Amino acid sequence: GQQLNQSPQSMFIQEGEDVSMNCTSSSIFNTWLWYKQDPGEGPVLLIALYKAGELTSNGRLTAQFGTTRKDSFLNISASIPSDVGIYFCAGQLGNNNDMRFGAGTRLTVKP
Amino acid sequence: DTGVSQDPRHKITKRGQNVTFRCDPISEHNRLYWYRQTLGQGPEFLTYFQNEAQLEKSRLLSDRFSAERPKGSFSTLEIQRTEQGDSAMYLCASSHGTGGNGYFGPGTRLTVT
């Protein structure tokens, strides 16, 4: 089963608003990853974080690796309709380990 | 296109039949992962390969499931005697050995009737 708690489960926002979602774990991870998945497609990697405290941006997306190594958040600024989808966090203990995923945050953006 | 590819994209089968899926990873990636995803959930790890060696298997991977990567390039996932509970999206991902990040394919959606 899932080892990561992702919240919120869903969000309904107006176009132009900022969005924040987070992921917590009872286990320490050495890598945190954020993916976006569109219906019927595989997840697409958005941001990868490798160091506790690291803050990384990718366009309007910003993600941080929590200092305890047990959490991460993703912010999306100035949302647009194409941001709609399901966002997953994933933690990875090491390069030899698989990724463990949260249950996802479903984002709906109203024009 | 140099991304991860999976074939077929959709498969409908009757309970009890065997099915096989194929994954072609990004060519320079030596690691290949299989995940299963059911509706409303995140992907769940099944197994992974480094080159041709299968290094880890989840307890989700019952005896009816087998995966191979004979030449360290493409991989196949076979499900024998399918059950309705096997209905899911089967995702493949690949990565560099030192990179750790998984790049996913589009998935194979399996429906067992």
What does this structure look like?
The complex is a heterodimer of chains A (111) and B (113). Chain A is 0% helix and 55% strand. Chain A has strands at residues 4-7, 10-14, 19-25, 31-37, 44-49, 55-58, 61-65, 71-76, 85-92, 99-101, 105-110. Chain A is globular, with a radius of gyration of 13 Å. By secondary structure, chain B is mainly β. In chain B, strands 2, 4, 5, 6, 9, 10 and 11 form a 7-stranded mixed sheet that branches. Chain B has a 4-stranded antiparallel sheet with strand order 1-3-8-7, with no helix packed on it. In chain B, a hairpin with a 7-residue loop joins strand 9 and strand 10. Classes of the chains: A mainly beta (111), B mainly beta (113). The interface between A and B is medium-sized, with 28 and 27 residues.
Structural features:
heterodimer; A: 111 residues; mainly beta; 6-stranded mixed beta sheet; 5-stranded antiparallel beta sheet; 0% helix; B: 113 residues; 7-stranded mixed beta sheet; 50% strand; globular
Secondary-structure blueprint:
The complex is a heterodimer of chains A (111) and B (113).
Chain A: E1 4-7, E2 10-14, E3 19-25, E4 31-37, E5 44-49, E6 55-58, E7 61-65, E8 71-76, E9 85-92, E10 99-101, E11 105-110
Parallel strand pairs in A: 2-11
Antiparallel strand pairs in A: 1-3, 3-8, 4-5, 4-9, 6-7, 7-8, 9-10, 9-11
Chain B: E1 5-7, E2 10-13, E3 19-24, E4 31-37, E5 44-50, E6 53-57, E7 65-68, E8 75-79, E9 88-95, E10 103-104, E11 108-112
Parallel strand pairs in B: 2-11
Antiparallel strand pairs in B: 1-3, 3-8, 4-5, 4-9, 5-6, 7-8, 9-10, 9-11
The fraction of residues assigned to DSSP E strands of chain B is over 45%
Main beta sheet strand tally, sense and closure of chain B: 7 strands, mixed
Radius of gyration of chain B: 13 Å
Structural class of chain B: mainly beta
Q: Treating each run of at least 4 consecutive H or I residues as one helix, how many helices of chain B?
A: 0
